[in-house]
Sequence to fold (627 residues):
Amino acid sequence: MRTVAAFLILAASFLLSAIPAATQAAVENCQDSRGVCAYQKPLQDLLAHGKDSEDQRRIAVRNLLAPESVPQYLVLALSEGSIFDNLVSAWERARVDKQVGTSAQGAGTTDLVSRPSTPELLGLAVQLGALTETVSGSTATFNANGYGAYQAIIQQPGICLVCSSSAWKNLNFALSFDLSRGSTKQLITNGAANSTTPTLGIVQLPQSSAQFSSLTVRYDIYNPLDPRSAQFKKAWSTAFKNHQNDLIAAAKGLDTALTDLLDPLIKDAALGDLENKYNPLIMADMTANDTSKLKTDFEAYFEELDTLAHKDIQGLDQKLSVAVAAYARYSQLNYDAVREAQGKPQFTAEYDYDHPVTQPDTHNFKLIYGYTPKGSSGALFTLNLTGSVYGGYIPASAKYGRMRDFQFAAQLDRPLGNVLTHPATFTAAGYVQYQFDPSVLNIGAGNLVPGTNITLPGDAQVLLGTKGTLGIVQAKVTVNTKSGFNIPIGVSWANKTDLIDATDVRGHVGITYDFNSLSQLFGR
Amino acid sequence: MACTLKVSGLNFTGPTGGKPTVKIIANNTKIVRAEYNSQEQPVKDNTSTTFSILSGRNLLLLNLAGPQEDVAIVEDCGTDPPLPMGGYSNDFQPALGFTIVGT
Fold:
């Protein structure tokens, strides 16, 4: 439990420290001078190329001063607020491959199969139900991604479609708390408060309304991404061919949007005058490596460019919105292609430590495989293979072994409606578990020995249910709200549960939130 | 073969009717589509495009796909050294643009 407490403290301090600092940085870097913020990369490149060849210096200045050279900078610089962030977040919310809640084993779960991805920043789920367990419950799950947390601390965006890979990006943690069981603490009293009250030596005080239920650590396994390697080049060629038609279609939309923006600008002689005015100034700043003067000169240039853009481009805001949407669409396709080249199939290794209320703790080792069939309109097929072992001490005379069970599960998630903005996701899943021995039930001290009036002096264990195969099928619809909340509603049928050898039909409901929707709060 | 395009400030000039070949130099990044003066241009092997220069100032757009890496766009000048036109380092950009002035 010390680990759990330390994790919670870390998460809380991260949230408290990241929000004000990141918001302040956003004001300084982006809202007060959006031009400098959007053009940060070419500004940095310019200083880095100060002593390079004439051609490299010319290209560095061109990327900064010619608005058509890298149009994304101009689009971001002129866009109001965080349109781009919102679009990326919308795409993140639309993904069907994220596991926000707890997995199949344990009370208070609505998910029969663990999906291959997790929220890229933070996730929170409250779920009611059970799948393999006899007793239903309600569970709260807190999810965090290593990279997202790190990005928030250093005041960078939590979600980035083109950022370099980081090992932390593939590491995720989740903690679940069972909300339906409270814990108590035994305390010795100092005697009765008045003479009419019988003396009570010991009282049980409620300590909390929830108890730790499980800890999950996940790591996504990809082939290492080295763009220079022959292996990546080969994989990229294949991935590019697979996505080429989609990319061409998206490129057409992007070009139309960019032409609408850029054509009026480049055909205005005033743009040439503006470039000629600032070209020597910026070149001198680059040679002198004068960051402060460079920033001042660029801000003056951008102010004039902004005025010119508003004069030349009719319906600028509308055209910017179209361009931003086109960029988001195209970037998503390129991201998918690069991910495919990076490693397909995608595997996720997961470790779960489960702490059930009346059963021994278990360690579960899971391999998750996710696959999106070609032409399936965003559907995701997921397979899970799991092995579970009992944790802790097993008495020498125990009638059960260390190995608890093996599990195999498969799931199909299909978006209902538009792939990017679908309002709901349909899920069909199947689960098979082979258990080597009947389930073990812990009976705590103070309970009666079954069938007698004898109170147990210490902890005891009994075997309940049957060994063998447990099968479950589930159908579920998850309602995806625009605000980032998802509501899974499902029904499942099982041939038995872990403790009772009889068929079982259950309903499940939950609410999950992916904090990617608030990623703007944490970064630029 | 000499280059068709010449550097003029931050833009490029060339004779109207000239046919420059613009190509990409990168480990992986490919040209997905090319458009000049709002007209789609043929892309060869996802690495180059050749177009006919029109009179006046017109926009050449190149759509790229690839991982985050170094990318250079040059005019292929045959036996002569290529003319560096643009690019970026350790980045990915969906589109790059060039103003070509036909003279």
Observations:
- Residues 34 and 62 of chain B are 5 Å apart (CA to CA).
- The mean pLDDT of chain B is 95.
- Chain B touches chain A through 39 residues (CB under 8 Å).
- The radius of gyration of chain B is 13 Å.
